[in-house]
Amino acid sequence: MTHIHGDGFRVAIIRSKRRKTLALAVANGEVSVRMPARMAVHHAERFIQQKTAWIQQKLAAHPATKKRLFTEGESLLFMGQQVYLSIIPGSTANQVKLTKQSLLVDLKNKAPSQSVILKHITDWYQQQATQQLIARCRALSEVTGLLPKSIIVKTYKARWGSCTRVGDIQFNWKLIMAPKAVIDYVIIHELCHIKQHNHSAAFWQLVENFCPHYKVHRAWLKNNGHQLSLSVH
To answer: What is the pTM of this model?
Structure first.
């Protein structure tokens, strides 16, 4: 991958045959520019110079997250709350349990690797997300009167949810790490797409009818969404 250097930061250049314009992204302390495959690099360099102040502001506000080690006492997010890992190797069974402030990870392996611990924690998060996001979506669909055709929880790389034109709703399992109010906003957002499959003024008015403080929750997700991850950075 090609990189260019800005004022105190490095920028990854990502070329795509599908792109027609330049697109800038700052996430997890890293900067990238997506650009058309045949565009000369100097266009990206000029673009970065023009956006330097904005990039520096974003990097300061959202520094790179710390590398996860999945060790005793490390904190994770679950429904907006900090929970602390308690790793119990050499147990009689593999299981993950949530107490008031701890996520207890029982493992048969007496010396589990980081990847083994991550797998069991990820499986637990996905199970919880499937149960709780679907249940909450059904509850809010009754409140709003917006009834989905189906509800699925899956893995997304760059979105929190989606709704097809026929009403099939899908959620990113990582949403289960967000605060409850933010989860409700995303669910309501997707439910409103059943009636308004766009982001028009009418759509946002419908969202506001059911979630009066949606702008606060949308801003939280924009500013903190990068934290909703179990990935080892």
So the answer is: 0.75
